[in-house]
Amino acid sequence: MSAIVAGTAAPAPSAARRPRGGLWRAILHNRKAMLGAVLLALFCLLAAFPHLFVPWLHGDPRTIGDLPLQHPSAKHWLGTTGLGQDVYAELVYSTRESLVIAVVAGLGATILSVVIGVSAAYLGGVADDVLSMFTDVFLVLPTFPLIIVLATYAGKGNLTVIIIVLILTGWAYGARQMRAQALSLRNRDFLESARVRGERRSYIIVVEVLPTMISLIVANFLGAALYSVLTAAGLQFLGLGDPNSLSWGTMLYWAQNQGALVNGLPAWALSPGLAVALLGVSFALLNYAFDEISNPALRPVRRRRAKSAHS
């Protein structure tokens, strides 16, 4: 996840209340953001309406054919599996579960990061010490071995368990960023004014602090979603997911188990891996783009270089 330097000056309160169109205009003028948004929109379309892309199966990607382990052809664009199932159809229908894992786990990790990180910075004192120590413990834990242990013993094959495990192991880095940014805002004039007015702490955090951190929150969500989709695919590839589910990681698991590469069917093994990579690229590009959009130091430099190049 790309980090936003904690020392960067926080935006003025008025910047958090700028018209929404300003953010969309910034995305439209950023090539990375546009490419990432187009890729993500394509995956969302595949997840929402998979039957439109595989109309000949009538919504049943598990249809067993009589031609197992077939090479790509006009009838089966990516070949067939060991049971004669169409690889392209499975790839399209697997988009939904993979995208759900990325979005739900990314959103859960982001919410946990915001709650713990911002609360630690604003409350200070003992609360800050306890929450910071809690965050540090999760930061130093060996993540992937912990994920394997939790996913194995908490409920192998259970999608809900996998999502919860991803949330529990993916929030700490974002919480550290949130705390650092919130610390730079804690003594700003607009927060002091809210305290003088007698506003509740919850009101100050939600209404005054969080709107100034929208770009960082979005960047953390995109980074957490990227982490979730890659880690979930790795878990499913190792056989820790539901082998009967439709997801890219499960496709990789069966392709490896049934010797896709040995049988000369690279499309079966490579297509889900490429799909995971492209979804990860979409989140990564949007993440980098939000770093550029939210960091005022990057935009003038780019404009000056563009002007000097034209001159």
From TrEMBL:
It is a multi-pass membrane protein. The chain crosses the membrane at residues 33-53, 99-123, 130-153, 159-176, 203-230, 267-290. PROSITE patterns: ABC_TM1. It holds the Pfam family BPD_transp_1. The keyword tRNA-binding does not apply. Keywords: Cell membrane, Membrane, Transmembrane, Transmembrane helix, Transport. It comes from the Bacteria. The keyword Endoplasmic reticulum does not apply. Residues 99-287 form the ABC transmembrane type-1 domain. InterPro entries: BP-dependent_transpt_permease (IPR050366), MetI-like (IPR000515), MetI-like_sf (IPR035906), OppC_N (IPR025966). It is found in: Cell membrane. Belongs to the binding-protein-dependent transport system permease family. This is ABC transmembrane type-1 domain-containing protein. It comes from Kribbella alba.
